Amino acid sequence: MAENRTARPVSGEIMTGPATHAAPERAMSNAADIVDADYVVLPRFAAHPERSPPQPQIPPPPIEGMGMLRKPDAAPSRPSRGGPMFWIAGVGIALASFWVSGGHALVRQSPFWTTAGPASALTISGVTSRIDASGLKPVLFVDGEAANDGTRSEELPPLEIRVTDNDSNIIRYRLGTSNRALAPGERFGFSSRLDVPKDGVKAVAVVFAG
Predict the structure, then answer these.
(1) pTM for the structure as a whole
(2) Adjacent-strand bridge partners of 128
(3) Which of 16, 70, 146, 192 is the Cys-Cys partner for 188 at CB 3.0 to 4.6 Å?
(4) How far is the C-alpha of 45 from the C-alpha of 83, rounded, in Å?
(5) Please, what's the b/e burial string for 44-53 (b: 16 or more CB within 10 A of its CB; e: otherwise)?
(6) Which residue, among 180, 198, 202, has the nearest Cα to 190 in the 3D structure?
(7) Mean pLDDT, all residues of the chain
(8) Dihedral sign, Cα of residue 117, residue 119, residue 122, residue 128
(9) What would the pLDDT profile of 145-186 be if each residue is shown by its tens digit?
């Protein structure tokens, strides 16, 4: 055991001594070579993936037979020809031509242009009616008179006798006057015999026939 604890002599060279002195000498020789230096700090750029160029878009092929459904391009608007004075002058010329070519006659014949004429002076008065049943067949008698209440002679038109039965049916009878002329203040008496309607008589009226 005593032999194991006693240091044994080792023969050889110690290599660490020269290396200790050699390192500072090499560092000094390198430091003597640097004269001056400028430092530039460059920014760091993040790595970006390269973008691929856009793919060209190919238009779809036209569908045959569908061209007619496409809305046609709007035609450029054209400026209106002429102003208000142009149109007013054109309308005025057209109206003048219509008036000269006979339009005035048509306008005067229209119902809007017709003026109301003087009222007729002929009147009907004294109308009476009665039923005579003494014979085999009842008879309706209608009497009255027409008069000219004006200041000039008037032509007497035909008369129309309207008989209304009890069912509100109207029966018309025409009484001729030969279109005789009535002088101012003259009177024309008339009398007519008519068949009695089967439903009886409700009313009797006499008017000038149109």
Answers:
(1) 0.43
(2) 143
(3) 146
(4) 70
(5) eeeeeeeeee
(6) 180
(7) 72
(8) positive
(9) 999 998 899 898 999 999 999 999 999 999 888 888 889 999
In the block, which residue shows the tokens 């459904």?
Answer: 69
Unique residue bearing structure tokens 């002329």: 181
According to DSSP, the residues that pair with 102 across neighbouring strands are none
Q: Tell me which residue of 129, 134, 135, 138 sits closest to 190, measured CA to CA.
A: 129
Return d(Cα 58, Cα 45) in angstroms, integer: 37
Query: 82: closest CA among 91, 73, 74?
Result: 91
Rounded-to-5 percentages of helix, strand, coil across the chain? 25, 25, 50
Q: Are 164 and 199 in contact (CB under 8 A)?
A: no
Q: Could you give the CA distance from residue 202 to residue 161 in angstroms, rounded to a whole number?
A: 13
- Residue 50 gets which letter from DSSP? P
CATH fold group of domain 122-208: Immunoglobulin-like (2.60.40)
Which amino acid is it at 157?
P
